Amino acid sequence: MSLQQRAEQLSQLERQSEQSEWRRGEELRKREDRVRELQLELDKERGKEPVVKYVTQTVEVESPATLKQLTKARQRNELLSDKLSNQNERCKQLEEHIRKSDEYSCNLQHKIAAYEREISKLREELLKEIGHLEERKEEAVKAAATCSAEHFQNLQDKFFSKLH
């Protein structure tokens, strides 16, 4: 593989790395934005006053109207208790979603760091190879120059010997 091809390959790898890094950065920013949105939603849910109010009354009278009111109050309390339970479950789901997003984000950061290390290693190897090729090229140029000078001297000697 020629030096120019290796340099083009390095350039292409760097562009791909930059594009990949940019995409990962965008994805990470989107996830962080989503995590913030979910955190705000969770904070908003936590900050709400509970809609449930427990009312405890002791009623000694067993009139039909009182029993009816008592039944309605029990039903309402049960409904409100269910609502509170659902809100608590929703909070738990949001917390779990945030935890998973954080975990995924952390994994992406580890992968990005690994890719960057690999690219750095490949860049160092390519630069070493370029250095070796440069040295070989310089040696070849010197050898060609020496050979050319010797060949020129031989031709010059032959030319002058024919003239005499």
SSE order and pairing:
Elements: H1 3-47, H2 64-163
Helix pairs in contact: 1-2
Describe this structure in words.
Residues 15-32 have a biased composition (Basic and acidic residues). The radius of gyration is 40 Å and the shape is rod-shaped. The chain is mostly helical and 164 residues long. The protein has one domain (7-122). 88% of the residues lie in helices and 0% in strands. The protein is built from 2 helices and no strands. Helix 1 (3-47) packs antiparallel against helix 2 (64-163).
Sketch the topology as an H/E string, one letter per element: HH
Structural class: mainly alpha
Cα end-to-end separation: 51 Å
Output mean pLDDT.
87
Low-pLDDT sequence parts = none
Largest sheet: none
Number-wise, the strands total 0
What is the molecular shape?
Answer: rod-shaped
Indicate the radius of gyration in whole angstroms.
40 Å
**Tally of domains:** 1
Helix content: over 70%
Strand percentage, roughly? Answer: under 5%
Number of helices: 2
Which keywords apply here?
0% strand; mainly alpha; 164 residues; Kinesin-like protein KIFC3
Task: Describe, in short, the structure shown.
This protein is 88% helix and 0% strand.
